[in-house]
Amino acid sequence: ESITLSTLFGAIIGAITIIPAFIAFPLSSSLVKGGAHLIAIAAFITTLTMVGFATMPIEIKHFGKKFTFTRNLLSFILAILVALGMGVIL
């Protein structure tokens, strides 16, 4: 289904990019106005703030591989759950 794929793609893009919030929110507004699903936008913003794929080398150096991978995996899963919850609320 398109909502599932767009949510997954939104979450992945959010997880691998580094964008400041003051840019991400107006960008998200533009995407919604262009027809993007709210669940996908919620997944994008949530993973953008919770998951740090680009910063993993620094995090591994300071906290170790196990902690870093566990934190990022749990954050990704929780971000998807938050996005789904936003879909129910909105």
Structural description of this entry:
This protein is mainly α and 90 residues long. Helices cover 82% and strands 0% of the residues. Helix 3 runs antiparallel to helix 5. The protein is globular and about 40 Å long.
Attribute tags:
single chain; 5 helices; 90 residues; mainly alpha
What's the helix and strand layout?
Blueprint: H1 2-16, H2 21-33, H3 38-50, H4 56-63, H5 65-89
Helix pairs in contact: 1-3, 1-5, 2-3, 3-5, 4-5
Summarize, please:
By secondary structure, the protein is mainly alpha-helical. The chain has five helices and no strands. The longest helix is centred in the last third of the chain and has 25 residues, at 65-89.
Whole-number radius of gyration?
Answer: 13 Å
The proportion of residues in beta strands is under 5%
How many E-type strands?
0
Share of helix among residues?
Answer: over 70%
Write the H/E string, N to C.
HHHHH
Distinct helical segment count: 5
Contiguous runs where pLDDT drops below 50 for at least 5 residues: none
Distance between the termini: 19 Å
Question: What overall geometry do the principal axes of the alpha carbons give?
Answer: globular
* Largest sheet features: none
What oligomeric state do these chains adopt?
single chain
The secondary-structure class comes to mainly alpha
Average pLDDT rating: 93
